[in-house]
Each structure stands twice: as C-alpha cells, then as structure tokens.
C-alpha cells in the first residue's frame, strides 16, 4: 500500500506526537514509522495499526493519484542522476574533441541496442513478454493505472529491459574498445581520442532510452501496484 506521507505527518503533528510516540502507540518500530513517512510504503498491517491509533479508516491515509504521480517522478529524478552524469560526460567529450552533432545520431548503435533489447526480452520472457512490453509503453503517457499481477509483471519486465539495454551497451563498448586497441599503433593521439569518444555513443544511447522510457515505466507501475 502507498500512504500519503503529507497526510500522515499532518495528522501526527495535529496530535502533537513525535515519531517515537506514534511508534509506541501503534506497536511499530521507530524505523518503520520513519520509512513510511519517507516513502509512503506500508504493509496492510502497518497501515491498519497507524489508522487505529488515530481512529481513522485506513482509506483516509492512502495517497491520491496526484501524490502518486509526484512520488514516482521524484524517484525517477533521483535514480537518473547517474545516467545524467554519463550523458553529460559523453556530450562534454564530443564538444571537447570537436565531434559533429551527426555522430551523436549513430543509427547503427541505436539499431543494435533495440535488437539486443528485444532479443534478450524474448529469451527471458518469451515472445508474449516482448509483445506486452511494446503494448505497455502506453502507460508512460496515460493516467490510466493498472494493478495486481499485470502491474507486477510489467514492472519486472521493464526493470529487466533497463539491464538489457546497459548490457547491450557494455557489449558494444567492449567490442569497439577491442577494435580500437587492436589498431592503436596506427592511430595518432588525436585520432585515438576521437575514436574513443565515438565508442561512447552506444552508452549515451542506452542511457537515454533506459532512463527516459523503461525505468520511468517500471517505477510508475511499481507505484501503481501499491494501490491494488
């Protein structure tokens, strides 16, 4: 279940209770209260215990759709910091080395990532899983919420696809690095730097696809599932 952290904090403050007092009254640990007030995640038992001490219906503590939206967006931003660093580093290298913008739009590396992504998806989840992953892309752009088994399945699927993308990027990067190092004696220093920066494009593409599509979908569906 996903509780409204703002509601819980407000109700506790109105009673003049500290987290320690609420923990003692509800029979939960202080750490549990702190975690619930931080991310809103609570089991049915914890929700009932907290609602009981305030003489409220558990439903009154539930997060609203707007709060859910804010919560998953905040989590996406925090989890995307590393990806943003990778992207920023790649762009900086292109600028420093004077690469043209056309190199960033590398069709071959993008096509390789997509093919690797769905090949890995078929191996791990079957053809049905691949089709569901494509159909589920609509949840990134709609307020429609799904729950239960479907949300759990799709959240797991998209979380795995994030890993598949980075795995494909790593394979592509290593393959490119081997090719570059195998011919290092024929490169001048500047040419070597240009080749190395070009080799980072596949990681750049993986970060964009993973962090703008598949990780947000996974987080949104995990959050929505807490309502079911």
Automatic annotation (TrEMBL):
Membrane-spanning residues: 81-105, 111-131, 164-184, 196-214
SUPFAM superfamilies in alphabetical order: lambda repressor-like DNA-binding domains (SSF47413)
Keywords (A to Z) from UniProt: Membrane, Transmembrane, Transmembrane helix
Keyword Transmembrane helix applies: yes
Gene3D superfamilies attached to this UniProt entry: lambda repressor-like DNA-binding domains
SMART domains: HTH_XRE
Top-level taxonomic group: Bacteria
InterPro entries in the record: Cro/C1-type_HTH, Lambda_DNA-bd_dom_sf
Record domain HTH cro/C1-type: where: 8-61
MF terms in GO: DNA binding
Protein name (Swiss-Prot/TrEMBL): XRE family transcriptional regulator
């Amino acid at each position: 279940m996903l509780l409204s952290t703002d509601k819980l904090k407000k109700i506790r403050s109105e009673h003049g209770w500290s987290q320690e007092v609420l923990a003692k009254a509800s029979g939960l640990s202080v750490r549990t209260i702190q975690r619930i007030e931080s991310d809103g995640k609570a089991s049915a038992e914890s929700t009932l215990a907290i609602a009981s001490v305030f003489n409220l219906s558990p439903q009154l503590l539930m997060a609203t759709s707007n709060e859910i939206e804010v919560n998953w967006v905040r989590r996406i931003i925090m989890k995307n910091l590393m990806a943003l660093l990778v992207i920023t580093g790649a762009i900086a290298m292109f600028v420093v080395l004077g690469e043209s913008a056309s190199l960033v739009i590398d069709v071959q590396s993008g096509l390789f990532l997509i093919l690797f992504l769905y090949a890995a998806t078929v191996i791990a989840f079957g053809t049905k899983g691949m089709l569901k992953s494509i159909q589920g892309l609509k949840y990134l752009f709609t307020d429609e919420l799904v729950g239960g088994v479907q949300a759990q399945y799709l959240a797991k699927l998209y979380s795995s696809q994030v890993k598949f993308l980075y795995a494909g990027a790593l394979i592509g990067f290593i393959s490119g690095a081997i090719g570059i190092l195998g011919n290092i004696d024929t490169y001048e220093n500047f040419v070597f730097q240009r080749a190395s920066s070009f080799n980072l494009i596949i990681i750049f593409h993986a970060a964009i696809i993973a962090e703008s599509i598949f990780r947000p979908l996974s987080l949104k569906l995990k959050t929505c599932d807490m309502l079911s």
